[in-house]
Amino acid sequence: MEISLALIRDELGLETACHVGGGLNPKFKSVELYVVGAEQFSQDILLICPLSEAIAAEKREGEYFLCIRDRMLDEHENAYTMAGITVVRSNISLRDLFNRVHRIFVKVAEWVMAMERSVAKRRGLQELLDLSEPVFGNFITVQDSTFKLVAYTKNISPAGDVMKRLVEFGYHPPETMELFRRHRRVEEFKTAVDVIVSRDKVTSEFDVVKKTLNLGNSIFILVVMECCGKPADEAAVELFRIFIEYVKAYADIDIAQTGGVGGVKALSADILGGTAGSKEEARVRSEYCGYPFESCFRLYVFSFEDEDNVPIAHHINQLAELCRNSVVFSYDLNMLIIEFEKADIAKTCTTAEKVLEHSEFVCGISNSFDCLWELPIAFDQAVIAYEVASRLKANNKAGGGNGFHLFSDNHLYHIVSVGCQSAPDAWGNSFIARSLATLRAYDDQHRTETARILRLFLENERSATAVASIMHMHRNTVLYHMEKISDLLGVTLDDPDVRLQLLLAFKADDFV
After folding, report:
1. Both 150 and 86 in a single domain?
2. What pLDDT, on the 0 to 100 scale, is given for residue 254?
3. CA 239 to CA 229: how far, in whole Å?
4. Is 106 within a domain?
């Protein structure tokens, strides 16, 4: 274990003058007293001696000295002679200085050994924090992917309001999650690969040091240190990094969940990704998890507009509590709900809408299916449903808007879109495309609404009475328009194929 000069200076608690240039913060494995005339020392050893001996020494590059002052300041102390030397300004003996520095190495080494033993015996994250309290002197929490409190420093109380509420509730309440979302903390947690030091005082009146350990695209463990006792300086961040290495050991141990909800989530992700093996292998895994492989399922797929700043894991935890007959998990930056029993779609949508009230989303809902092996088909259906809805919204046409969209309601739009894209020239010269253009041209010339009347007629099961009510006209007038349309297009509306093609023409128009 190596510890840095900054950490040693911080732990000493003495005023020092450091002449290590270039922003360097060298690290050392041990400390020794410098002896004049001795053989060369290893460069990973911090040398302690009087300042006069350090100045007189033929220093090699990479050698560093920690000194007590034994001489008056004069012209010989310049940038060249003082390079690599740190001088203690306090009145302290050489022996006392050496003993203090040696105790720092022992303290850190004993702490690290204690954490190694704890991890080896799998005593848990709480014991790691118990062992670390005397080292840090700050309030530290470990949270899971849903921002639920897993462990914290029991003998160091939180000072900031956010951390106080976290300890009180055992998880971050909605107002805190909204604060994180508003200041893009969730995005920061997801994307940061290094230790983060926040000094903006937005979520705490103290500096905050934090690190996320990620699994795929989701936060797995979040470690946060509120610097209410000691500052967030180089030394504190260094100790924090050491601690994180042992938290990682638990992340590595606990990533794989073999049974229960974790198991069926993993199985579902494997089926969607095509890595589940054979259908029979998937069936065995499902039985092992205690979930049915064959039942009456339905899939909800949620896509978020600001996906980088949405606490998906937090939402998953909330929905899992409320949707008891479902499994909720993330896949490919989406949130998925698999209902394992025939449920009330409206109730599920209402529940999800309340949980996601602060997140912009669109949700596609598949048709019901009978076997988990059909998840990829259901996923495609749900994605088609929300993509069609999003496109309709972008074009300001009926059927758009954020919210929930059934595949069954949007399948015709998808068929039309695929048909048009696969052969646009053939489509453009088809009756489907030309019929609506003919009616629009007639309406422009005669200031009529035959196109709108026809659409209402087709969508209301050819009920002239219903169209008359909507258009505020007489029923006979509607029938007159239908005859006029038949003459203009040279077709009869009694032909079901003609009516289908005309309805598809309106569906296609919604995408334009």
Report:
1. no
2. 47
3. 14
4. no
The strand pairing partners of 465, in sequence order, are: none
What is the domain range of residue 300? 260-418
How does DSSP classify residue 473? S
Number of domains in the chain: 4
Q: How far apart are CA 53 and CA 67, in angstroms?
A: 9
Q: Is the dihedral of CA 432, 405, 470, 475 positive or negative?
A: positive
Phi, psi of 140 (to 5 degrees): -130, 140
Around Cβ 35, how many Cβ atoms within 10 Å? 11
8 Å CB contact between 333 and 190: no
Q: State which amino acid sits at residue 4.
A: S
CATH number at 7 reads 3.40.1390
Nearest to residue 284, comparing CAs of 255, 257, 264?
A: 264
- The answer to whether the CB of 91 falls within 8 A of the CB of 71 is no
Give which of 489, 493, 463, 488 is closest to 478, Cα–Cα. 463
Distance in angstroms (rounded) separating the CA atoms of residues 438 and 100:
93
Give the model's pLDDT for residue 392.
80
Please give the DSSP secondary-structure letter assigned to residue 158: -
Order the strands of the 85-88 sheet from edge to edge.
16-18, 85-88, 64-68, 45-50, 30-33
Q: CA nearest 154: which of 134, 130, 170? A: 130
Count of C-beta atoms within a 10 Å radius of residue 383: 17
Greatest Cα pair distance in the chain: 117
**Helix ranges, 234-322 (H):** 234-254, 260-273, 279-289, 312-322
Residue 412: predicted pLDDT: 86
- Measured distance CA(165)–CA(370) in Å, rounded: 44
**Same domain for 427 and 382:** no
The stretches in the chain having pLDDT less than 50 are 254-258, 399-401
How far is 136 from 141, CA to CA, in rounded Å? 12
**Shortest CA distance to 52 belongs to which of 41, 64, 36?**
36
pTM exceeds 0.70, yes or no? no
Would you state the pLDDT for residue 187? Answer: 81
Say yes or no: 279 and 408 in one domain.
yes
Token pair, residue 336, equals: 């998925």
pLDDT of residue 471: 92
DSSP for 359-399 reads S-EEEEEPPPEEEGGGHHHHHHHHHHHHHHHHHHHHTT-TT
pLDDT at position 18 is 94
Q: What is the CATH number for 208?
A: 3.30.450.40
DSSP label at 307?
A: G
Answer whether 442's CB lies under 8 Å from 488's CB: yes
Contact indicator for 161, 174 with CB cutoff of 8 Å: no
